[in-house]
Structure formats: structure tokens, C-alpha cells
TrEMBL record, chain A:
UniProt name for this protein: ABC transporter ATP-binding protein
Entries under Pfam families matching the protein: ABC_tran, BCA_ABC_TP_C
Origin: domain of life: Bacteria
Ranges for domain ABC transporter: 2-232
Record key words, sorted: ATP-binding, Nucleotide-binding, Transport
Chain ranges passing through the membrane: none
From TrEMBL, chain B:
InterPro entries the record matches: ABC_transp_permease (IPR001851), LivM-like (IPR043428)
Transmembrane segments: 12-37, 57-82, 89-107, 127-143, 174-193, 199-216, 223-243, 249-267
Protein name listed in UniProt: Branched-chain amino acid ABC transporter permease
CDD domains: TM_PBP1_LivM_like (cd06581)
Keywords, comma-separated and alphabetical: Cell membrane, Membrane, Transmembrane, Transmembrane helix
Principal place of residence: membrane
UniProt subcellular location: Cell membrane
Keyword Cytoplasm: no
Membrane-topology annotation of the record: Multi-pass membrane protein
From TrEMBL, chain C:
Coiled coil start-end: none
Bilayer-spanning residue ranges: 12-31, 38-56, 62-82, 94-116, 142-162, 188-209, 215-237, 244-263, 269-287
Location of the protein in the cell: Cell membrane
UniProt family annotation: Belongs to the binding-protein-dependent transport system permease family. LivHM subfamily.
PANTHER family: BRANCHED-CHAIN AMINO ACID TRANSPORT SYSTEM PERMEASE PROTEIN LIVH (PTHR11795), HIGH-AFFINITY BRANCHED-CHAIN AMINO ACID TRANSPORT SYSTEM PERMEASE PROTEIN LIVH (PTHR11795:SF371)
Annotated membrane topology: Multi-pass membrane protein
UniProt entry tagged with the keyword Membrane: yes
Signal peptide: none
The protein's name in its UniProt record: Branched-chain amino acid ABC transporter permease
Pfam families the UniProt entry points to: BPD_transp_2
Length: 234, 289, 300
């Protein structure tokens, strides 16, 4: 279980996150929504240790992570994907997936084949990543993230650039895995329809403030959220 | 046969072999994303360590070489700590600062002979030098088949992504620097015992340029890239001389052309498809190629 | 005490040369985000042409200075076209342009050596050849001239950057090239101008170097590149006045080490300071932090 306690972060005087309080339970599917620049990716960077918060605490299963370096958080199961996928360009697709110590020491062949098949990467395992398009690169990161057996999976716009049907299929693969393994998910996603369907809870971030959390149906009725996120004005 | 090595072409061949070893060593460091501009200094530490052990302490050639290599590995590991804080060219400038400092220090240190340098034996006979090159290339061929090497490349490709999949990037940088440092130290010790004496300016800016140029020309990602690059770097001034062109012009043009026109080097990296990993098990067993 | 003052003066005039080279780095880095590996060799080209012109004109320093400045600008244009412009479209870090400009500088060094051989080239002018003596302190006219002339040059440059519309454009591009492009400033024209200006400055520096030291060799270029790099990085890469101050400080430090700690490597001393600074204050003393340039990616 992930708990964020009053996370604060500013960049050169501009507040990116103002005292964010949020938790993600094991097995829970939480989506982080909000306009561009609301601080969503910053929050993920703080959870993974790529950025240090100015204040506040990140707790995983009650254990503070603030002083744990990024690579160790990943080894503890805090696993992420990137908004624009970051490939190891000198490694093949297979090697990119196996690059994580958590994958090459833990995943078995059957698991590997199943995930790779589900994400339609089977024929491309020996390709170099610069031969692939951005959709496949997202799929590589997702395959690796799942095979890393996360306790918390952080997905930063994993379906960016995908058609609706492709996006739905990828999200389905992820949630099927979640039901089996019971890890928590924090998803950043712009497709509101998709988000509504798969999420247990939505957290709405606006100008670095968490303005609402709750089930999708409830959030949809919140005036402030509609205004901030959906751009509807009454 | 042996007379050949005391002729001009033979000496060139040995100089090539020593540069090829040094370039192979630096390619491991550069391949892990560290643009260190101190390969000459690491090589020099190996050279001076071996020379001091041999001449001042009376230690025989093989053990003196080991002493030089260990010192070089230690210095290289310490230099890699800079790479924890600095990236790219800033790392290059900081390490260049250290390299220039060490050369200036050697000039002023009477114990190592100051500007006049140090004598040593002529124990690195032509066969020793050439066999060492073969051993180094073979060792790197083995290294390239390990998971460790994949992790080092991952760090070189994208440090943040490497961290996010659980690779200890700092540790990888230290390991790569030690591996590279050992190889650079070996080349330095061979340099000492091949020439029979060394001076500080052997390990100055022009050596840095030669090593870096060899790796850039040959290709940093391939096993034979640095070796081929070293051959080009040794051959270039000779060819230039035939047409009365200054060696700096040849090196300068080569540097500009390779960076602008073929940044991956003459022999690009990446394994052909038929050599790539075929199963998860092979990777789990530590073999990725 | 008189030794101290003597070395202070010697150091200041050496430092003036370092300051000029450091300034050239800051100019080019500011606008083009390029570490110019050819800065030192262009100084040397300036020096050699100045020495030839001085020889032909019977020791006319001003003519030599003018010629050195002009050839600096010419090589600046070549440098920009051949080593910097081809990379502009490719983006990519600091390393590649540093290597291409370094290569360009090596070619220059080779050309100079081909024409003049590698032995030291003398520099004779009928100018500022006297020296005064105040107590035990000897002050060469040449030294005094170099220091004062450098200061005037710096003031003029400062004016140019901070008080002209061209300078304003340059600062706009240095701040944010894409926004500057959006408001109608041509970054390409500006880059060409700045590289030519910095290289002209390097040429001038060559003539001043000749006046002060009376001789140089082709390989000196690399040493000057490294010194200039040092000054610019310590100053923080974006600060004009910082580069000047650090240049002077470097010259004085070296002079003091030579006089008072002859067993220490004078060059090495400055490098140690550089390394310590880079590690603990990557943005330099006067610099602002540049996004994505200074701090290591796995800084925890």
C-alpha cells in the first residue's frame, strides 16, 4: 500500500505540488486526472525517487521511502512506465524487457511468453528498439513493468498515441494481471471514458492541489472537477 | 623474425597494439555513458606504478605490472565517483582537470624523475605485447556475453530508465571504470616495459586524443571497433607523412569527419540477428548474446 | 613584499589573457551552447599572423593587432560553417560540437606547424618595449598595456552586449533560443555573428600574447583552450564579468604558486580548484543553473 503524506514540490518558486495527500491500496486501481501541468508526472517522479520532494513523506507498506534511492524502490516493487518511453537503444526488445534484475531473476518462461503474446510483441523480440514505433515502445515498458511483479504500478499515459481499441486492449491486459496478482495501480490517462470504466477511484489534481478523490461516478458530478478537468463551465 | 620488431614497422605494430588495448579499456568506460577524459592518466598511473615498482623497489616485471594495474584500477574507480555527480562534457572537463594535474605533478615529483621521467626494463617483448592484446580482446568478448555488460549498456543508454528498472547505476559506473582501469593500466605497464622508459608528457593531451579518436573512429559499441580505430590512428600520421601533411591536420580532419558523418564509428555496435538472445533461460543463465 | 607585488602584476597580465579566452568561451556557449575546442588554436593563428605582419611592417604593433583580429574573425566564420552549423539541426548534447570544434582546432594547429615549423616563433614589435622600476618592482610597458587594453576591450564588449539592440538579441537567444526565434530574431545569423566576434577576440588575444611573451609555439593552442575552458566553467558559463574575474584570479594564482611554492605544479593547482568546484557547485560561481546541463542524472 502506498501512502503520500503532504507531498510538496516547487520548481524555482513555481509550486508544482502543494501538500498532496493520497493513498493507493493493494489491488486498488486509482487514476490521476487533471489538466496538463497539474503535477501528475511530478508526483510519479517523487514516488519513484527520480525527484526529491521539498516536504512530505512517501510510505510503502508503512515504510518511509524518502531516503531510498530510485533503483532500490524499483527493486522493492515500485515500478513505473514513462510518458514518452525510454528505451535502451543498444539492447534488443527482449533485452530491454529482461534488463530489470527483477525480471531476469524472477520471471519464468511461461509468464514471459504470455505477457509478450498479450502485448503483441512476440514477433519483434529480436528487433532493436529504434525499429519500433512509439506504441510498441509503450508495450515494451508495460511488459517489463508487469514482469517485474510490482507491488505498486505507476503508469504515465501508457496508451498515448494508441487508437481507442489498442488502448483498451492494453489496459485490459494490465487489469487482468492486477486481478491475479493484487498490486496497486496509479494511472495517468487522458481518455476519460476509459478511466471511468477501469478505475476504483479517481484523484483529481489541479495546479498541484488534489481537489477531489472518490469513485468515478461521484467525481463526475463535482462542479469544480468538471470545470478544472473537463473544461465544462456551467 | 624478431628483427622485424626492432625495425620501424615492427615498432609501429607494437605501438598500435598498446593503443588498441588502451582504447578497448576506455570503450568500456565510455560505453557505460561516462565521457572520461582521463584515460591517459589511468594509463599513466599503470605505467608509473609499474616503473616505480621495477626500478625503485626492484620488483620483477610481471609483479611490477600487477602493481601498476591495481593502482590504475583504484584511480579509475575513484574517477568514476565524479560520474555520480557530473554528466557528459562536464565529467569530461573535470576528469581532464585531474589528468592535467597528474601530468603537472609528475613533472614536479623528483621521486618519479620529474620531466626527465623514469627508466625501466625492456621486458615487454613483442610476443608479450601482442599476446596481451589477444587476451584483452578475448576477455572483453567474454564480458560482452554477460548480463553485467547489458546492465552497463543500459546505464550508458539511459541512466534514469536504468534506475527505474532497478539497476544500481552508481555501482555499474564503478564496475565499468574498474574494468576499463585494469585494461588501461595493462596498456600503461606494457608501454613502460616496451619503451624501457617513460616521461610525463607521454600521457598528456595527445595521448587522450589518440585513445578517444581510436574509439570514435572504430566504434564504441563493437568489440573490434577500438582495435580497428587504433590501427587507423597509428596509420594516419604515417600516411599523412607520405603526402607531407602534418599529423594534427590528419587527426583533426578525422575527428571532424567521423563525428559528423559516421558517429557510430566504422564498425557499428549491435549484434547481428542470428547472434541475439534466443530464450529467457539463456539470459537468466547470464548469457545475453 | 616586493616579490608579492611583482607577482601580482605579472599574474594580472597573464590573467588578462586567460580572461579574454574565457570570455570567448562564454560568448559562444551562451548563444550556441557549444564548448569551443578551437578557441586556443585561433589565438595561435592570430599570434602567428601578427608576428608576420609585425615583421613585414617593421614592427608596427597596431597593424599586427588589426591583422590578428581580422584573421580571427575569418577563421571564426569557417569554424561556424564547418564545425558548428552542420550540427545545429541534429540537436544532441554538448559532446559532439566540442569534438568537431576540437578537430577544427587540431587542423589549425597542423596548418600553423606546416607553415612555421614547431620551433618557437619570435614576435618583435617597436612598441611598449621599455619597463619602469618602482622600488624593486619591475613593470613592463607591454604588461601594463596588455592589462589596460584588455580592460578597455572588456568594457567595450560589455557595452555591446548590454547596451545595443544586437546585444539584446544575443542575450535573448542565450536565454531561450526558440522563443527568441519566435519573436523574429534569427538564431543562425546571431550564432554566426557571435562565433565570429569571439574568434576575432581570440585573434586579438594572439597579438596581445605576442606582445607580452614575445614567442609562442603551435602546441600552445591546446593549453590555452584548456585554460579558457577552466575559466569559463569555474565562472559558470553564463557570466561575462565572472569569466573576467576568474581569468584574472587564475593568472594571479599561478604567478603566486610559481613564486612561493615552486615545488607545486602551477598548472595543476588551478585544475584542482576546478574539479572541486565542479563537484560541489556544478553551476559555477557566477552561473545560474542551466536546465539539463550540469547535474548528473543519477544524482540521488
Amino acid at each position: 500500500m502506498l501512502e503520500l503524506n503532504e507531498i510538496k514540490k516547487s520548481f524555482g518558486g513555481v509550486t508544482a505540488l502543494a501538500s498532496v495527500q493520497l493513498s493507493v491500496d493493494d489491488g486498488e486501481f486509482v487514476s490521476l486526472v487533471g489538466p496538463n501541468g497539474a503535477g501528475k508526472t511530478t508526483l510519479i517522479n517523487i514516488i519513484t525517487g527520480a525527484l526529491r520532494p521539498d516536504g512530505g513523506q512517501v510510505l510503502l507498506d508503512g515504510r518511509p521511502l524518502n531516503r531510498v534511492p530510485a533503483y532500490k524502490r524499483s527493486r522493492h516493487g515500485v515500478v513505473r512506465t514513462f510518458q514518452s518511453p525510454r528505451m535502451f537503444r543498444r539492447l534488443t526488445v527482449r533485452e530491454n524487457i529482461l534488463a530489470s534484475p527483477r525480471v531476469h531473476t524472477g520471471a519464468n518462461n511461461e509468464d514471459f511468453d504470455e505477457i509478450v503474446e498479450a502485448l503483441q510483441l512476440t514477433g519483434r523480440l529480436d528487433a532493436r528498439t529504434d525499429e519500433l514505433n512509439v506504441v510498441d515502445r509503450h508495450r515494451i515498458e508495460i511488459a517489463r513493468a508487469i514482469l517485474m511483479r510490482p507491488s505498486l504500478l505507476l503508469l504515465d499515459e501508457p496508451t498515448a498515441g494508441m487508437a481507442e481499441s489498442e488502448a483498451r486492449q492494453v489496459i485490459d491486459v494490465i487489469s487482468a494481471r492486477q486481478s491475479a496478482a493484487g498490486f496497486g495501480i496509479l494511472l495517468i490517462e487522458h481518455n476519460f471514458r476509459l478511466v471511468k470504466e477501469v478505475s476504483d477511484r479517481l484523484a483529481v489534481l489541479d495546479f498541484g492541489r488534489l481537489i477531489h478523490t472518490g469513485p468515478p461516478a461521484e467525481v463526475e458530478k463535482n462542479e469544480r472537477v468538471l470545470e478544472a478537468y473537463l473544461g465544462k463551465r456551467s | 623474425m624478431i628483427e622485424f620488431f626492432y625495425g620501424y614497422s615492427g615498432q609501429l605494430l607494437l605501438t598500435f597494439a598498446i593503443l588498441a588495448i588502451a582504447a578497448s579499456g576506455w570503450s568500456v568506460i565510455f560505453g557505460t555513458g561516462m565521457f572520461s577524459m582521463a584515460p591517459s592518466a589511468t594509463m599513466g598511473i599503470g605505467a608509473y606504478g609499474a616503473a616505480v615498482a621495477y626500478t625503485h623497489w626492484g620488483i620483477p616485471f610481471p609483479i611490477a605490472t600487477v602493481i601498476g594495474v591495481v593502482l590504475a584500477a583504484v584511480v579509475s574507480a575513484l574517477l568514476s565517483l565524479f560520474a555520480w555527480r557530473l554528466d557528459h562534457l562536464f565529467l569530461g572537463i573535470a576528469t581532464l582537470g585531474v589528468a592535467e594535474f597528474l601530468v603537472a605533478l609528475a613533472h614536479k615529483t623528483p621521486y618519479v624523475g620529474g620531466s626527465l621521467g623514469m627508466p625501466a626494463g625492456f621486458d615487454a617483448t613483442p610476443p608479450v605485447v601482442l599476446i596481451t592484446l589477444v587476451i584483452v580482446v578475448f576477455a572483453l568478448w567474454l564480458l560482452r556475453r554477460t548480463r553485467l555488460f547489458s546492465a552497463m549498456r543500459a546505464v550508458g543508454d539511459d541512466t534514469l530508465a536504468a534506475q527505474s528498472v532497478g539497476i544500481d547505476t552508481r555501482k555499474m559506473k564503478v564496475i565499468a571504470s574498474i574494468v576499463g582501469g585494469v585494461i588501461l593500466g595493462v596498456s600503461g605497464a606494457l608501454y613502460t616495459f616496451q619503451l624501457g622508459s617513460i616521461i610525463p608528457s607521454n600521457f598528456g593531451f595527445s595521448m587522450i586524443v589518440q585513445i578517444i579518436l581510436a574509439v570514435l573512429i572504430g566504434g564504441r559499441d563493437s568489440l573490434f571497433g577500438p582495435v580497428v580505430g587504433a590501427a587507423v590512428v597509428i596509420a594516419l600520421p604515417e600516411l599523412a607523412r607520405l603526402v607531407s601533411v602534418d599529423h594534427s591536420i590528419a587527426y583533426g580532419l578525422a575527428l571532424m569527419l567521423i563525428v559528423l558523418l559516421r558517429p557510430q564509428g566504422l564498425i557499428p555496435g549491435g549484434r547481428p540477428r542470428w547472434l541475439r538472445a534466443k530464450s529467457v533461460r539463456a539470459v537468466q543463465a547470464g548469457i545475453t548474446s | 613584499m616586493s616579490l608579492l607585488i611583482q607577482q601580482l602584476l605579472n599574474g594580472l597580465s597573464t590573467g588578462a589573457i586567460y580572461a579574454l579566452i574565457g570570455l570567448g568561451f562564454v560568448l559562444i556557449f551562451g548563444v550556441a551552447r557549444v564548448f569551443n575546442g578551437a578557441q586556443g588554436p585561433i589565438v595561435i593563428v592570430g599570434f602567428y599572423l601578427a608576428s608576420v605582419v609585425a615583421g613585414l611592417s617593421g614592427g608596427n604593433f597596431w597593424l599586427a593587432l588589426l591583422a590578428a583580429t581580422a584573421i580571427g574573425a575569418v577563421f571564426g566564420l569557417l569554424l561556424e560553417r564547418l564545425a558548428i552549423a552542420p550540427l545545429a539541426s541534429k540537436g544532441g548534447g554538448l559532446l559532439v560540437p566540442f569534438l568537431t570544434t576540437l578537430g577544427f582546432g587540431m587542423v589549425l594547429e597542423g596548418i600553423v606547424r606546416t607553415i612555421f615549423s614547431s620551433s618557437p616563433q619570435p614576435f618583435f614589435v617597436e612598441f611598449a618595449s621599455e619597463s619602469f622600476k618602482i622600488g624593486d618592482v619591475r613593470l613592463g610597458q607591454a604588461q601594463l598595456f596588455v592589462t589596460v587594453f584588455t580592460i578597455l576591450l572588456l568594457v567595450a564588449l560589455d557595452r555591446m552586449i548590454y547596451s545595443t539592440s544586437w546585444g539584446l538579441s544575443a542575450r535573448a537567444v542565450a536565454e531561450n533560443a526558440s522563443i527568441a526565434g519566435g519573436v523574429g530574431i534569427s538564431p543562425v545569423a546571431l550564432r554566426i555573428g557571435i562565433v565570429a566576434l569571439a574568434s576575432a577576440l581570440a585573434g586579438t588575444t594572439g597579438a596581445l600574447y605576442g606582445l607580452q611573451y614575445a614567442a609562442a609555439t603551435p602546441t600552445l593552442g591546446v593549453v590555452l583552450t584548456i585554460k579558457g575552458l577552466l575559466v569559463a566553467v569555474i565562472a559558470g558559463l553564463t557570466s561575462f564579468r565572472g569569466a573576467v574575474l576568474i581569468g584574472l584570479l587564475l593568472g594571479v594564482t599561478e604567478a603566486m604558486v610559481i613564486a612561493f611554492a615552486p615545488a607545486m605544479p602551477a598548472d595543476g593547482f588551478a585544475f584542482v580548484i576546478l574539479v572541486a568546484l565542479l563537484l560541489f557547485k556544478p553551476a559555477g560561481i557566477f552561473g545560474r543553473k542551466l536546465s539539463g546541463t550540469a547535474v548528473g542524472a543519477d544524482d540521488r
